[in-house]
Amino acid sequence: MRSSYRNILLIVSGLISLFYSSQAQITTDASLLWQDEGKALKDSHLAFRGTFSLSETTELEMQFCGASWYVIWLDGNYFYEGPDRYSPMYPEYQSKKVKLPKGKHFLAVQVHYDGVDTRMLKAIQPFFYCRILHTNKEIPVFWKCKELEGYENQMFRISAQLGWVEWLDTRKIPENWKDIDFDDTTWDAPVEVQREIGPLKKSKISEVKSLELFPESIAEGKLAEVYGYEKDNPSARFFLRDLKCEKLPPQGVWKRYDLGKVQLSRPKFILDLPEGAIVEFAYSEFLSHGRVAPWITLSLSDSYNLDHFVARGGKQEFFPLVPKGGRFVEIHIKAQPEKISFMEEKFIVRSYYDKQEGEFQSNDELLNRIWQTGIETYKSCAEDALVDNPTRERGQWLGDFGIVGLSIGSVGFSDVEICRRGLVQSAHCANSDGFVAGLSPGNEAFLSTFSAQWVHACMNYYRFTGDKSIIEDLYSYAQRNIAGFQLHLTTEGLSNDAGWPFVDWGYVANEGSSDMSLNLHYYIALQEMVEWSKLLNKREEAFIYEKYKKEISSIISRYFAGHSNPEYNWDTIGYHRTVLGMLTGFIPKNQNKHGIEYIKQHILNCFPNNPDAPRLSDPDANNPQLITPYFAHYVFPLLIENGEMDFVLDQYRKSWGWALQDNRTTWLEVFDTRWSHCHQWSGCPTWQLSRYVLGLHPTFDKESNSFDFNFHTGHLTDAEGKMPLPDGNVISVKWVKIGNNIEYVLNTAVPVSIQIPKEVKASKNGKVKVRNTLKLVIPNKSE
Q: Which of 541, 589, 643, 677 could tie 285 with a disulfide, CB 3.0–4.6 Å?
């Protein structure tokens, strides 16, 4: 019976996959422009100049899209960049509104065609798309284009996950080609081209921001070359230069800048230099032996996090086309030092966010700093997508944006649309089995655990925002996703051929043919699918998923029963499976005390609590005696809700406090300094402090602006903060302990509902409607 049912699943999944793959033949009828219809050369640059005229001052909507990175100048000034990442069958155009005066205007656009898959985009043959509209009437633009010479073609990739190093002789670029009065009469008219993409739709996310930053240099001096030819190994040549010149004659100058935190940016410098001067910018997340090292750790290849220019001579702007990640930047200029003049030094930061809306303050300054570091790291990882890291990958991994990132974003910002779009793109990139992608839309990776967690993430997005369209739009993808899991279900659980069962870095799987942590994540997914189906009034489907849930439940129950005779063998079960087992109720409540004590002792026996414990030095350093910031997203709510808030607060201070040493301002990826130094998935203390210490947990799936009151203070004496709402309003909370009570005050500009459990013994309980102010008196119970 099981075999015949699986065959049916295979047929259904195959038919649905055939339908989706047939969509790949759709080609948009929008006007896509390129130099010609021939196959473009990898790592090539094309310049466009477009002119248009207005008869009066007009507010315009400008629409842009491309198959690869582009930068736009409007009337000679930097204006916009893109594209927003997309999967080929679901391309999106960006929309930007601008008010322009009467007269002639022009656009200058530089498009860089990578020609290779990156973490952001597939290697679609290149195009540029632009429409300018006024009240839905299109304004004609007259275009010219020219290939930009001067770039060394396909010499070095930044890394195997990113595009190409910009290695440019600016003397070969038409001077002032971005100016309105530049003579482009010899340039060619672009042609319309066909590309294998779906119909263009408007991007739903807000505009990605370009923010100016003016850091001061923290060190400077003279330099001399000491290593090989300039193209032998540019990163080594840069790093090995003599920056003291105590024994060698100077050949140039250098400056070093601290941008304050790891973030995605690029310099926009104006320099006055002799012709032929070499200008290099290099970026790093931290200083190595006091220097900027242009290598990117864990990049899966050689890496060159730098830009190389040859100066035209005279006053000139140096502005790399593509932003790069790092906190520290060095500029090396090879020319006679006395002929080098710095005229303007600024950076353009790329970020989805500018100012945060959420706030948190308590009587503990270290906790306040930890909360804010989570926000700053989240901002650094937010561009057109919420990525894992701005330096190493810029990849949209579901575990980063959909699991921890969504929770952090929801307490810091009213707009978490980039998380919604990530969930949609994961669905659009599903594989033939139906599994949604764990990484998308450029490079794709399929992690069985992430595919399961995607279901929970979609439901959480609905709970946090009240946007029901997320579960309406993605239900069919969720069905295919679950069907994919059922294809790999055996009597022992999900088989390992379902895809990479990533649970955590350092994780050690249980013995046997099926990873029980994966089964536990799948159980949670099925719980959510039952609820999801009921919310959409799909009763028959809910019944099916309830049946699946019981089937996997029996497998998981057998596993825990096999390790509980006569008592639970916590060490054999292990840290991760104990946590997930307790969260899902497979470990009975009468064992909670023992399970919680085991989890606490495990944490205290791991680095950084135990300085002699094994270190997670690299992705292969698996060991049962490890903890990570990521998995604390699951662990700490379990501890908090079992009366261990003070233990958790102390872990924030000890472990995350350790991570802030050496003046770090964004979170390490793991509790080891040899990984990336900016990973927002490590920031769970931010959402946990906001939710538990302020007490508000969103239930917008039940009612707009509704919350469950789940309040835990530990031994903090006071706290206050702001919680953003999806409509842009904020709720303000402030409480203080006075004697045996907590005086809790909530202010809101819009009506909210709060469900206060009776066991809290607050001065009000049940469902409380708040229009302006809520004042509660709560007994001060130590935790």
A: 677
What region, left, alpha or beta, does residue 714 occupy, with left being phi > 0 and alpha being psi -120 to 50 degrees?
Answer: left
**Nearest residue to 393 via CA among 457, 298, 274:** 298
- The answer to whether 163 and 442 are in contact (CB under 8 A) is no
Sign for the pseudo-dihedral over CA of 494, 499, 503, 509: positive
First to last CA, the chain: 52
- Say if CB 591 and CB 601 are below 8 A apart: no
Greatest alpha-carbon span in the chain: 87
Using one digit for the tens of pLDDT, what is the confidence trace for 260-298?
Answer: 999 999 999 999 999 999 999 999 999 999 999 999 999
Region for 150 from its dihedrals, namely left if φ exceeds 0, alpha if ψ lies in -120 to 50, beta otherwise: left
Q: Which amino acid is at 138?
A: E
Q: Give CA–CA dist 203/590, Å, rounded.
A: 50
Give the Cα separation of 424 and 626 in Å (integer).
33
Tokens 């919604």 sit on residue = 420
**For residues 664 and 90, what is the distance between their CA atoms, to the nearest angstrom?**
39
Contact present, 530 and 545 (Cβ < 8 Å) = yes
Cis bond upstream, residue 294 (ω within 30): no
Q: Which long-range contacts (CB under 8 A, 24 or more apart) does 694-698 make?
A: 694/360, 694/719, 694/721, 694/723, 694/733, 695/733, 695/744, 696/723, 696/731, 696/733, 696/754, 698/410, 698/463, 698/464
- The whole-number pLDDT of residue 565 equals 83
- The Cβ of residue 355 has, within 10 Å, a number of other Cβ atoms equal to 6
Stated as kind and residue range, the H or E segment containing 554 is helix 539-561
Strands (E), 631-759: 696-698, 706-709, 718-724, 730-738, 741-748, 752-756
pLDDT in tens, 512-525: 999 999 999 999 99
Q: Quickly count: other Cβ atoms within 10 Å of residue 593's Cβ.
A: 11
pLDDT tens digits, 588-634: 999 999 999 999 999 999 999 999 999 999 999 999 999 999 999 99
- What is the three-class DSSP state of 593? helix
Q: Is residue 25 packed enough to be buried (19+ CB in 10 Å), middle (13-18) or exposed (0-12)?
A: exposed
How far is residue 682's CA from residue 197's CA, in Å, rounded to a whole number?
36
Q: What angle do CA 98, 100, 103 make, to 5 degrees?
A: 150
Q: Are 770 and 746 in contact (CB under 8 A)?
A: yes
Positive or negative, the CA dihedral 412, 638, 421, 326 is positive
Q: How far apart are CA 392 and CA 158, in angstroms?
A: 9
Q: What is the CB-side half-sphere exposure of residue 34 using CA atoms within 13 A?
A: 22
d(CA 9, CA 13): 6
